[in-house]
Amino acid sequence: MTQPGQDCIFRHTDIRSRRCMRYNSSSTLHFYLSSYFTHISPYYKGKVKTVGSSFVLQPNLPDKNVKTVLIGEKYAKKLGKILEELGIAVIAIPENPCIAPQIACHADMSVCHLGGNRLVAAQAVYDKLKAAVLPHDLELIQASKPQKALYPDDTGLNVCIIGNKLLHNLKSTDPAVISAARLSGLEFHDLRQGYTKCSVCVLSSDKIITSDGGIHRIALSLGIESLLIKSGHIRLEGYDTGFIGGCCGKLSKDKIAFTGRLHGHPDENKIIAFIEKANIEIIYLSGERLFDIGSIIPIKEA
């Protein structure tokens, strides 16, 4: 696989876009967006117009072009400008003081999108987040239980929803999520992993990528095609490794964004081939190695 900037068909060097588009050997279009970042306020919404957009009905799985995403405020400062260039506004999730500082700005630890306009928020960020989501007509539901710093008491909202299936360690799932998911008619599937959303890259309702063997086996038993990859090789400050689900998010039905390059991951070729087989294009938001930000959560599309 070529390095970013090599063998480019088009090269845009102006500061506003700084974008290089290239084809790899399999002729799938990849976008490399440079790491030209600007400071963004914690509840940045950008200059992107979201009028006429609708809510993503199935969590993680937009049907159209995504117009609004949720990411942690620390990473909104780093990736918000790049997302704006793609026509995507950002709602920054406030830092969560109740969980470990290394993951306190991970969106998937503090909020759980249940589909449509419903969002469960951790007690520690609920009040701050209310003002940020009000203009977006989101129904914000407060989590029932306070989080704590140690696993598994920090995992109540880190559920993974794939189509009509909710996967999580159900002993740890916040009751507010359980209640809302029941009303939505979701199927519940129990597993050992509490960091479920972190651990899963959701490509479609029947395709995922994970490094967790337990999630992989359950997915296969549910008729979901799963690529099991080697753990590690994803940066997460303060920990030995991050997770594949925490460094990506869908930007449309046929596009997925990664925080950094897959180059250097031992299963890079397998991951790319699996994604290409699903007819999904890859967008790299930076030229760095993959880093875990607690997911890019698509909320609105148009």
Radius of gyration over C-alpha positions, nearest whole angstrom: 18 Å
Q: Can you count the helices?
A: 7
Uncertain runs with pLDDT below 50, 5 residues or more?
A: 1-46
**Topology pattern, helix = H, strand = E:** EEEEEHEHEEHEEEHEHEEHEEEHEE
Mean pLDDT across all amino acids: 87
> At CATH's second level, what is the architecture?
5-stranded Propeller
Q: Any idea of the CATH topology?
A: L-arginine/glycine Amidinotransferase, Chain A
Terminal Cα span: 33 Å
CATH class: Alpha Beta
Total number of distinct structural domains: 1
Q: What is the β-strand count? A: 19
Could you describe the 3D structure shown?
The model is unreliable at 1-46 (pLDDT under 50). The strands form five sheets. The chain has a six-stranded mixed beta sheet, covered by helices on one side. A four-stranded mixed beta sheet has the order 4-19-5-6, sandwiched between helices. The protein has a three-stranded mixed beta sheet with strand order 7-8-9. It has seven helices and 19 strands. The longest helix is centred in the first third of the chain and has 13 residues, at 73-85. It has one domain (10-301): 5-stranded Propeller (L-arginine/glycine Amidinotransferase, Chain A). Helices cover 20% and strands 26% of the residues. By secondary structure, the chain is of the alpha/beta class. Helix 3 (123-133) links the parallel strand 8 (118-121) and strand 9.
